[in-house]
Amino acid sequence: MAEQKNEQPVDINEQIQVRKTKLQTLQENGKDPFTIMKYDVSNHTLEIKDNFEALEGKTVTIAGRLMAKRVMGKASFCNVQDLKGNIQLYVARDNVGEDCYADFKKFDLGDIVGVQGEVFKTQKGEISIHATEVKLLSKSLQILPEKYHGLKDTDMRYRQRYVDLIVNTEVKETFIKRSQIIKEVRTFLDGREYIEVETPILVPNAGGAAAKPFTTYYNALDEDVHLRISLELYLKRLIVGGLERVYEIGRVFRNEGLSVRHNPEFTLLELYQAYTDYYGMMDLVEDLFRTVSKNVLGTTTISYEGVEIDLAKPFERITILDAVKKYANVDFSTINSDEEAKAIAKEHHIAFENRHKKGDILNLFFEAFVEEQLVQPTFVMDHPVDISPLAKRKPSDPEYTERFELFVTKRELANAFSELNDPIDQRGRFEAQEALKAAGDEEANSIDEDFLNALAYGMPPTGGLGIGIDRLVMLLTDSAAIRDVLLFPTMKTKD
């Protein structure tokens, strides 16, 4: 359909003023659209198209945004877009009335309209609505981006997501899928007798992950508090209390940089299950990913940036030691001290800090040599205790823990442990973290005395899991950057 002429002029301010003048005229004539309270809608556009045979010749009412318009004397065509899609309208003066048609001709692209009419198909075979009423429900005072070029400026797209959603239909589809994904995650866990809970966002001690917290001041308590960086420590308190399966999907906040993979506030799923271990969590993760993909996308074979990812196959399992040995050709099982680890790091030009221990340096090798190799779903297992302060040690090798991270498309999507439930060992780990903090590590944990007190009452053997919801949505919507799956990503304020 042809675009309304002169809808994207050089002088935008002049056109905005024209729209304001039109609104003022409507108000003076008792036709103020902003006084309209409701409009009864019988169908969405996609429903009409999908059920044309049943609806042909019947009267429907729709509402949406005017996206295109072609005026031709006594009859016009236009296009209305709603949540589900768009549809063509045939608007004739003899059907809507002379006054209504005169008003319609003054409508602008972007206006919100309500439409009543009969469903029919044009001679060219396009399903349309033959309007008997077109009513202005809200006046648009801004100018939409030009239709054929769209909104391409990524900075503006993120800052003005409302415009992005109007003009880029694939963006709207991404966020509809995001909602479906989260719904399916909940359905999956609810069906396995997990209890959804809520834990504090403002906390006196932000623990459970290696991250720098945001700090604020609580006037009523006269003390500093933090935005949570994780959900872990409060959820494990609930396991102590006897809630055997719990989960939470919530925002967490980490005072870190921005990248295609990172936003300082993001959505995290954490769950904990008593009487299982990290192997149980691996089985759960595989089942969860397959189920959500199948129910949302209709398939377990997905494409991400042109690469086929098969979620139906058993996920590969490899220890972090074997992964580094395979891809970096360095065998950390033969390295017996921090000094040896630092020496081998220098040989391979791996930057490290003096405070780093053997386990830290093993992880640096993993980040440098392994992550980029992990495209298909892979569980990387048995991380060193130096970087896993909340995971249970492996009985066969106490230098390492029962922990895994899931990598898909070179990104970490999940992190899980056999949870440490020994309060004495946990205190020692916290003290080691305090030493790192004192040495300048802003991401180190602090001692959480109340959590230690909870563990002292006895926590059963427990498996725990965290999944970055935003990265899961990225995977299942083939989105390249985390900002593409966050409705309002963090942006630096414009001056």
Automatic annotation (TrEMBL):
Gene Ontology terms, MF aspect: ATP binding; catalytic activity, acting on a protein; lysine-tRNA ligase activity; magnesium ion binding; transferase activity; tRNA binding
CDD domains to which the protein is assigned, alphabetical: LysRS_core (cd00775), LysRS_N (cd04322)
Cofactor(s) annotated in UniProt: Mg(2+)
Superkingdom of this protein's organism: Bacteria
Name of the featured protein: Lysine--tRNA ligase
PROSITE patterns assigned: AA_TRNA_LIGASE_II
Catalyzed reactions: tRNA(Lys) + L-lysine + ATP = L-lysyl-tRNA(Lys) + AMP + diphosphate
Predominant location: cytoplasm
Gene Ontology terms describing biological process: lysyl-tRNA aminoacylation
KW Magnesium (keyword) present: yes
